[in-house]
Each structure stands twice: as structure tokens, then as C-alpha cells.
């Protein structure tokens, strides 16, 4: 009699000894585990390293312990101070103020400063060079630092989430207000952490890093105090007035979140560019973010102008955007046009591509023209809106302004664009005259720009004041280069002197032509051919004997 072999359970047929639920869990684990293993390869190794160091550090232990102790003490103290009225009155607002202060200190002060020190310590100790020669890019390093900060924020939020939920049960506080308050606190904490990463990349000197640490710490303390006082005043004044049921309120929230997302993206790109090598393309991504930011801003402002129907809103927003672009242009006009051969292989090669995208390449000349094109576009949009509302009465005929007031708006926008073009161009020309070995980064460019702006406004004012024996005098064509007085006079009464228009337009055209003459070297930069050895290594060209026998050291 032959003995039959026992039938073993296969992967498709569950065994009779364990339960079917355990078998299903085992099958699901076998399918999910390879997927999780592949996903783990996508995790940033800097995130893993920074998270382990941060969560095991003495600073995090002390901060987290103090957070829990303060939350525990405030829970008992706030309840005991309001007994027995807490059963009958709305006590949620007063209790929420204390919890928010406890949460705001680590989020707005500790986490951003710790993020700054994590990157600054890498540069001070010389360990950043070891990271830069690895396969990690500068953007991955910066994102790893930022994600570690986000993880710490989540831990702090998790610790105080039950306490904040407890305030809602005490009545007197709106759950939507709590959600918006926590959301904006989180967004501001992320922005401050990104600013810390940008400041950490400004210098590699230990002494300058110490100075920057003190300045950043003082700034964070001041901002944390101002923000907590602002939120506490909102809570004390009552939150019933917030229009939660109006769609305009949520449209404004969307605009604020969009602006915050653009700034976070911009700061990440700036921090990554600062930590990259000198001849890398450190400008294109930043300028793309600037273009996207300006496009979204114009979209939101146009929607607001159509909804409100008053061109004054458009003028105010465009003046704010021009001031914003003036700050951008100061830094863009001081960039270095140096590019490595590897970066030049990715430049546009067609005529249309070079015409449209040359201004996104690094360089002071391309940066100046890039900023000038955006400022001019903002001015044209604003002037067009003013003309449409004056001539057609659209979008709201009741807000149609007289022709004199509309001309003031359009002339002020034109003067602002002309002053930005001329003064940034003059600052760039002066900066280019400084020898290359004495250009100490962006700091010198900012100082030169400030001196040019002060000279343009102060010199004509001092000369005319001296001619009038330092007595009071009114506006005259001699103040044409005085950008501050001219813009104020244009908004207040309007410019009636034709000489002012001639001087400002002539100065703008002259400075623009002088800067265009300096653009020849940057425009002539073309796409470099990719060597055969690189094509073979990348797999674009099959390896042949002709490619193998090339000696890169041969003369």
C-alpha cells in the first residue's frame, strides 16, 4: 500500500489551521511590502538623517517636554480660574489664547531657527562639501532640511491637538476659526523655515554666520511676539464677524494661500541656488517661479477689479507689485553670467527658443531685461484697465472716475515703471564697473542701488533747497529725478510740467540703450554640443570603437 504525500496549502488556497482573516492579512502584506520598499527608495536620505538627529537632540527633547508641561499646567490653571462659571459661560476663547501661545513659540521661533542652524552648521563644519559631491542635488538637500522641519511641526501639532479640541467643547470659539488659525500658523512657520534656509546660504564665514544667527533670532522673537498679540486681539475682539458664509471670504483665503505657496516655492529655489556650484544654472528656475507668481497675481487682481469695479484697487495692487519687482530687479541685475559647459548643453538652440527663453538664462543683463519686461507688462495692464473703465464704464459704471483722476493714475504708473527701469539700470552699470575680485556677492549690489536711489532723490532736493536758502519751496522741474517727490506729486495734484516728462523719458531711454550695449556677450551665448563620450554614458549613442579610442587628454 503506497503512502500518499500530504497536500500542502498553496498560495492560492488558504490553510485550514489558521483563520481565513490571518491568511488574507498575510497575502495583503506580501503584495504591499514590495510597493512600500520601492517607495522607501524615493525618500530623501537627508530627511532620514535630519529627522533622526532632530528627534534625538537635546533641543527637541527640552522643547517638547516644556510644550507638554506648559499645556498640562495651562489646562488645569485655566479651568480652576474659571470655576464654577465654566459650566455656564463661554470659556473657550480665553483657554484657546493660552494654548495658541504655547504652540506658536516652538512653531514660529524654535523650528525656523533650528532649520537655519542645521544648514549653517553643515557649511561651517565643512560637511556640506561631502553632501555636494554625492548624487544628491542642492534642491534635495534643501528639501530634506525643510521636510525635517515639517516633521517637527507635525509632532508639536499632534501634542496640542487634544487641548485645542478641548477649547471647542468649552463653547465660545468657532471650529472654522481654529482651523484657519492653525493653517496660517503652519504656513507662516514653513515660510520662516524657508527664510532661515536662505539666510544660512548667504555666507560660509563663521563670524558672519554668527552675526546672521543673532539677527535671525531677534527677528523671529519680534515676529512671534507681534503675531501672537495679533491673534490674541482677534480672539478677544470676537470672531463672530468673520464672513464664513460669503464666497468672497473664501476667495480671499484662496488668494492668500496661493501667494504663500508661490513664496515658499521661490524661497526653496533661492536656497537651492545658493547651495549649488558657481557655474550652475542658478537663475532659470527662480525666474520661472517669478513669472508664475506674477501671472497668478495678475489673475487675482483682475478678478478683484472686475468684482469691486474700482480702478483704484488695480492701481494700488500694481504699485505694490512694481515695488515687489524693484526688489527682485536689484538682485537679478547683479547675477553672474558664468555657465559651465554641462549647463550650456541645455540652452535653447532654435531661433524662437532663444528669442523667448534667453532672458531666463543667468546674467545681469538678461535679469535686467527680464525684470523690465514684467514691470512694463504690469504697467500696461494697469493703464489698460484705467482706460477701459474711463471710456467704457466697465466693469462698474458707478465707479467711473473723471478723466483728470484717471490721468493721474496712468501717469503715476508710467513714472513708477520709468524710475524702476532707469535707476536699476544705473545701479547695474555702476556694479559692472567694480572689479570682479571686489564684488562681494549681492550685498555690494544692494548697497550700490541704495546709493543710486538716494543720490537721485537727495541731490536735486539739496541743490534746490540750498538755492532757496533752505526755506520751504514747491515742486519744480528740477525735481524730475527725485522719484519720491515726483510720485507723490503725481498722485496728489498731477504733474503739469512737460519738462518732467521729457527728462524722465529721456533718462529712461538713455539708460536702457546703455544697458542694451552690455547685453551682447550674454545674448551670444549659444548651446554647446554634447561630447560623444557623454552621449555614450547617457545611453543616447551606442558605444563604438571610434568613440572608445578617443583620448580626452590628447592634445
Which features characterize this protein?
555 residues, 72% helix, mainly alpha, single chain, globular, disordered N terminus, 2 domains
Helix content, binned percent: over 70%
What is the string of helix and strand elements?
Answer: HHHHHHHHHHHHHHHHHHHHH
What distance separates the N and C termini? Answer: 86 Å
Mean residue pLDDT? 82
Shape: globular
Count of domains: 2
Query: How many alpha or pi helices?
Result: 21
Structural class: mainly alpha
Low-confidence stretches: 1-17, 545-555
Question: What characterizes the major β-sheet?
Answer: none
| Percentage beta strand | under 5%
Total number of β-strand segments? Answer: 0
Gyration radius (Cα, Å) is: 30 Å
Structural description of this entry:
The protein is mostly helical and 555 residues long. It has 2 domains: 43-242, no CATH class; 305-530, no CATH class. Helices cover 72% and strands 0% of the residues. The chain is built from 21 helices and no strands. It has helices at residues 20-40, 45-55, 58-81, 92-125, 128-132, 138-169, 175-200, 206-237, 247-274, 284-308, 311-332, 341-344, 351-357, 364-392, 403-432, 441-467, 483-492, 498-517, 520-523, 532-538, 545-548. Helix 2 packs across helix 6 (138-169), helix 6 (138-169) runs antiparallel to helix 7 and helix 7 runs antiparallel to helix 8 (206-237). Mean pLDDT is 82; it is low at 1-17 and 545-555.
Topology (elements, then pairings):
Blueprint: H1 20-40, H2 45-55, H3 58-81, H4 92-125, H5 128-132, H6 138-169, H7 175-200, H8 206-237, H9 247-274, H10 284-308, H11 311-332, H12 341-344, H13 351-357, H14 364-392, H15 403-432, H16 441-467, H17 483-492, H18 498-517, H19 520-523, H20 532-538, H21 545-548
Helix pairs in contact: 2-6, 3-4, 3-6, 4-6, 4-7, 4-8, 6-7, 6-9, 7-8, 7-9, 9-10, 10-11, 11-14, 11-15, 14-15, 15-16, 15-17, 15-18
Amino acid at each position: 500500500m503506497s503512502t500518499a504525500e500530504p497536500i500542502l496549502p498553496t498560495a492560492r488556497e488558504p490553510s485550514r489551521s489558521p483563520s481565513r482573516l490571518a491568511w488574507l492579512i498575510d497575502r495583503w502584506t506580501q503584495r504591499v511590502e514590495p510597493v512600500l520598499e520601492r517607495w522607501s527608495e524615493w525618500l530623501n536620505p537627508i530627511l532620514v538623517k535630519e529627522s533622526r538627529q532632530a528627534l534625538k537632540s537635546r533641543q527637541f527633547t527640552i522643547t517638547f517636554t516644556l510644550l507638554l508641561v506648559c499645556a498640562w499646567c495651562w489646562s488645569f490653571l485655566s479651568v480652576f480660574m474659571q470655576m464654577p462659571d465654566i459650566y455656564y459661560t463661554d470659556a473657550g476663547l480665553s483657554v484657546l489664547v493660552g494654548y495658541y501661545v504655547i504652540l506658536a513659540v516652538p512653531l514660529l521661533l524654535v523650528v525656523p531657527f533650528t532649520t537655519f542652524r542645521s544648514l549653517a552648521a553643515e557649511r561651517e563644519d565643512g560637511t556640506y562639501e561631502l553632501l555636494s559631491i554625492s548624487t544628491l542635488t542642492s534642491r534635495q538637500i534643501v528639501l530634506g532640511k525643510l521636510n525635517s522641519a515639517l516633521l517637527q511641526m507635525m509632532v508639536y501639532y499632534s501634542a496640542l491637538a487634544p487641548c485645542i479640541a478641548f477649547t471647542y467643547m468649552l463653547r465660545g470659539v468657532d471650529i472654522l476659526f481654529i482651523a484657519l488659525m492653525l493653517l496660517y500658523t503652519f504656513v507662516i512657520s514653513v515660510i520662516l523655515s524657508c527664510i532661515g534656509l536662505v539666510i544660512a546660504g548667504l555666507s560660509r564665514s563663521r563670524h558672519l554666520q554668527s552675526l546672521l544667527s543673532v539677527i535671525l533670532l531677534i527677528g523671529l522673537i519680534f515676529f512671534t511676539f507681534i503675531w501672537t498679540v495679533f491673534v490674541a486681539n482677534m480672539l478677544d475682539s470676537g470672531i463672530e464677524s468673520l464672513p464664513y458664509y460669503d464666497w468672497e471670504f473664501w476667495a480671499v483665503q484662496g488668494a492668500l494661500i496661493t501667494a504663500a505657496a508661490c513664496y515658499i516655492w521661490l524661497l526653496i529655489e533661492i536656497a537651492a541656488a545658493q547651495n549649488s556650484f558657481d557655474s550652475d544654472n542658478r537663475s532659470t528656475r527662480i525666474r520661472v517661479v517669478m513669472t508664475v507668481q506674477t501671472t497668478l497675481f495678475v489673475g487675482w487682481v483682475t478678478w478683484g477689479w472686475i468684482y469691486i469695479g474700482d480702478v483704484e484697487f488695480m492701481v494700488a495692487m500694481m504699485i505694490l507689485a512694481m515695488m515687489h519687482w524693484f526688489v527682485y530687479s536689484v538682485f537679478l541685475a547683479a547675477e553672474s553670467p558664468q555657465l559651465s559647459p554641462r549647463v550650456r548643453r541645455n540652452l535653447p538652440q532654435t531661433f524662437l527658443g532663444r528669442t523667448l527663453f534667453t532672458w531666463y538664462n543667468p546674467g545681469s543683463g538678461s535679469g535686467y531685461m527680464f525684470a523690465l519686461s514684467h514691470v512694463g507688462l504690469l504697467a500696461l495692464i494697469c493703464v489698460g484697465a484705467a482706460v477701459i473703465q474711463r471710456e467704457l464704464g466697465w466693469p462698474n459704471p458707478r465707479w467711473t472716475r473723471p478723466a483728470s483722476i484717471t490721468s493721474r493714475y496712468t501717469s503715476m504708473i508710467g513714472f513708477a515703471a520709468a524710475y524702476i527701469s532707469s535707476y536699476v539700470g544705473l545701479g547695474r552699470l555702476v556694479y559692472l564697473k567694480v572689479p570682479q575680485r571686489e564684488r562681494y556677492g549681492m550685498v555690494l549690489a544692494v548697497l550700490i542701488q541704495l546709493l543710486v536711489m538716494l543720490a537721485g532723490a537727495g541731490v536735486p532736493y539739496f541743490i534746490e533747497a540750498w538755492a532757496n536758502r533752505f526755506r520751504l519751496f514747491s515742486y519744480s522741474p528740477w525735481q524730475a529725478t527725485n522719484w519720491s517727490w515726483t510720485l507723490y506729486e503725481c498722485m496728489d495734484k498731477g504733474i503739469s510740467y512737460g519738462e518732467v516728462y521729457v527728462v524722465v523719458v529721456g533718462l529712461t531711454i538713455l539708460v536702457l540703450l546703455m544697458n542694451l550695449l552690455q547685453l551682447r556677450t550674454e545674448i551670444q551665448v549659444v548651446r554647446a554640443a554634447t561630447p560623444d563620450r557623454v552621449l555614450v554614458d547617457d545611453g543616447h549613442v551606442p558605444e563604438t570603437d571610434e568613440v572608445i579610442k578617443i583620448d580626452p587628454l590628447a592634445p
